[in-house]
Amino acid sequence: MAEIDVESLFNYAMKGQWRETLEAYNKNPGALEAKITKAEDTVLHLAVYLGQTNFVRKVLDGINEEVCLNVLHMQNLKGNTTLHLAAEVGNVDMCHNMAKRDSKLICARNLEGETPLFLAAVHGKREAFLCLHDLKQNHDDDDDDDDEDYSLVKKSNGNTILHCTISSEHFGLALQIIKLYPKLVNSVNQHGLSPLQVLAGKPNCFKSSTRMELLQSIIYNCSIVDEIEETDDVCYNREHKTHHYPTNYETCATFFSLLKSTAIGKDDKAASNDEESNVSQKSEEEQAKKSEKKRYGFPPNWAAAIRFLTHMMKLLLIICGVGANWIGKIQRKKVKHIQAIQVMNELIECGSSSLFKHDYTSMSVHGSVKSRRKAAPILIAAKMGVREMVEKILDTEPMAIHEVDSENKNVVLLAIENRQPHVYSLLNKRSLIRETAFRQVDKNGNSALHLAATYGSHRPWRVPGAAMQMQWEYKWYKLVKDSMPPNFFERYNENGETAKQLFIKTHQGLAKEGGKWLAKTSESCTLVAALVATVAFATSTAIPGGPDQRTGYPLLGGRPAFNIFAVTSLVALCSSVTALVLFLSILTSRFQEKDFALDLPRKLLLGLTTLFTSIASVLVSFCAGHFFIVENELKFAVYPIYAATCLPVSFFALVQLPLYLDLSLAMIRKVPQRSYKVHSHGMHHHY
Questions:
Q1: Is residue 307 within a helix (H) or strand (E), and if so which, with residue range?
Q2: Same domain (yes/no): 120, 222
Q3: Do 163 and 221 share a structural domain?
């Protein structure tokens, strides 16, 4: 009978028939402890998976305390209890209902060494995490910090909840964890990484390492994002907000709420702060911080008014065809950047002085495993291009500039080796750093100039193509060379190579590849330019209407169309011959490394420009000459045909526009733009 009931229980649960499942359980209470799947899940595990809060509550309330605790402590094949699953999915009601019955469940570990409190933090379930945190604090009989820290760490690798929330980019929750567990700021995992080092390895979370187009940049700068207040309440509140309108009208409700706030002169945020100040009791320190906030000379409703205008701007962009999801994605990116900066500031300000050092032995949060710290955070940030972190660390701990990694490379050498222009510009502006850190050499005797001359395994610059990469490689080398201290002398590394020799050696493959592309492009363009020159010469010698037999002057001379024909045919001939000469000069080039910096790109840019001009001029001269042989009644009918004739030229210009922009900007810019799509994923192993 029991087997039939268990089988029925499984079938009902799989079909989502929870009423029948509850009835089957009432007939056979022992079936609740049966493991009904291959993963050894009980029916409560499945109910938590599927979010059946009412079913779980009825079942737990309907059994005695001893059976209830046995069921809640049952683990599946991965060692997860039902509280593990509830915390992972972020179901606050289930977490509260289970954890209040036995607080030991909060610290129970699965086979990976994860507690429910840990899983809630890792998956960014803020409410579930705060709920479990409060229940754990309320049921703890003593203030044993070691036992408290024990539940916040993953046993398999020593990562704390702060490591994992930063790695998962849940920065809002990470800020609250820092306030609740300040000891975790200085914790290291079994790989020797601190939370600050984990954050340093995530350049995509910072604005300096994010590439945005013009329109994206405008929307990014116009978006208003609130920072997370330090005085925000981090306690779990079981009272959920109830709205008197359907959830799909939330956008409209927000819009009218902002409109009301603008008119009345009180912001929603200010109103909520007033309510919180009446309910919660602030400490004297928090009140002092609040009173120290800047007082702006604006009306009290200025914040709401700006928010209202921002929403109006978004509405106009949506009407103009810019997607709301696209705008929301940019705004979420800005939120992530601001919160990452907040987390970074908290980690640096709350961390100990040893946090910024490269090599020291530290106890892990377990208190049992010793782990040696890897590269200092400033070195990782310099390598990954996180300018904000490098600047903050140097302002907080100036002596961090002397930190070196296992290869004796300091922050300057790592920034130059990994082609990080933002970090390089920051370091180059500080005269003290230029006089000291720029003179550092690594364990192989390579100076900053040697590392700038060494080409790595991937293409770091944003421009496509080997020729453009070669151009920026030489410009980067020249930029670093010009920024070296005045009395810096050319030196040899341990292999007896100068920086110039190293540049030629490591860039041979890239120069060869870039030369092939330039030669192939020039050959194709030379053929087109020669064809256009032939047509332009034949056209320029033909006079529409012929000459006057008495005077020798053209019969149609003086007419606007004839003047256009005469000028464009001459321009076509001159520009096509110029393009032919420029492309031939590229073909006869020796493709030396320094030629890629200015000479070859300039010839390519001028050649493409004159080729485009010659093609356009030939078409215009043809249309102008053809205009004379069309009858008067058909003159207006041929205008659309002339416009269609210009479409191929327009298409050619549109296709070549990215290359034009890259070549033109390369002539103007001194500091190149780096591509952040490729990062060193082996960072932790490297150190």
A1: helix 302-319
A2: no
A3: no
Six token digits for residue 208:
């300096």
Six-digit token pair at 190?
């079994």
DSSP string, 46-64: HHHHTT-HHHHHHHHHTS-
Q: Would 551 be classed as within a structural domain?
A: yes
Token pair listed for 225: 């994002």
At residue 247 the predicted structure's pLDDT band, cuts being 50, 70 and 90, is very low
| Least confident residue range of 75-89, 121-135, 147-161, 510-524 | 147-161
Is a pLDDT exceeding 80 seen at residue 387?
A: yes
Pairwise CA distance, residues 203 & 424, whole Å: 15
Domain boundary among 383, 401, 419: 401
Same domain, 75 and 164: yes
Residue 84 is encoded by which pair of tokens?
Answer: 């593990």
pLDDT band for position 432 (50/70/90)? confident
Q: Which is higher by pLDDT, 10 or 329?
A: 329
Q: Are residues 262 and 376 in the same domain?
A: yes
Which of 560, 564, 565 is closest to 543 using CA atoms? 565
Name, in order, each residue with C-beta under 8 angstroms of 443's C-beta and a sequence gap of 6 or more. 407, 408
CA pair distance 162, 154, nearest whole angstrom: 11
Q: Please give the Cα distance from 342 to 344 (Å, whole number).
A: 5
Q: Please tell me whether residues 101 and 222 are part of one structural domain.
A: no
Q: Looking at residues 306-311, what average pLDDT do you find? A: 61
The total domain count for the chain is: 3
Cβ(185)–Cβ(178) below 8 Å: yes
Q: Which long-range contacts (CB under 8 A, 24 or more apart) does 27-34 make?
A: 28/1, 28/2, 29/63, 29/67, 30/2, 31/2, 31/5, 31/6, 32/59, 32/63, 32/67, 32/71, 33/67, 33/70, 33/71, 33/74, 34/6, 34/9
Six token digits for residue 282: 């602030």
CATH assignment at residue 176: 1.25.40.20
Mark whether 40 and 78 lie in a shared domain: yes
Pick the range with the lowest mean pLDDT from 125-134, 182-191, 650-659.
650-659
Q: Using DSSP bridges, classify how beta strands 370-372 and 361-363 pair: parallel, antiparallel or unpaired.
A: antiparallel
Q: Are 444 and 493 in contact (CB under 8 A)?
A: yes
Tell me: do 338 and 380 sit in the same domain: yes
Predicted pLDDT of residue 557: 56
The residue out of 352, 373, 401 marking a domain boundary is 401
Residue 78 domain flag: yes
User: Residue 582's pLDDT is what?
Assistant: 93
Separation between Cα atoms, residue 200 and residue 670, nearest integer Å: 27
> For the residues of 633-655, what is the DSSP string, one character each?
GGTTTSHHHHHHHTHHHHHHHHH
Tell me which H or E stretch contains 361. strand 361-363
Residue 118 and residue 208 in one domain: no
| Helices (H) then strands (E): counts for the chain | 33, 2
d(CA 55, CA 70): 18
Instruction: Say yes or no to pLDDT of 150 above 50.
Output: yes
Q: How far apart are CA 228 and CA 508, in angstroms?
A: 51
Boundaries of domain holding 525: 516-645
In a domain, 93, yes or no: yes
Residue 511 lies in a domain: no
Find the mean pLDDT for residues 476-504. 86
